[in-house]
Amino acid sequence: MVKLLRVDERLLHGQVAVSWFSTVGASSILIANDAVMNDEMAKVAVKLAKPAGAKLAIRDIEGAADLVNDPRAKGVSIFIVVRTIEDALRLVELTGDEIKHVNIGGIKKTEDSRMISNSIYLNDADLERLKKLDSLVEELEFRLVAADPKKTLRDL
Question: Is the pTM value of this prediction over 0.70?
Answer without folding.
Answer: yes
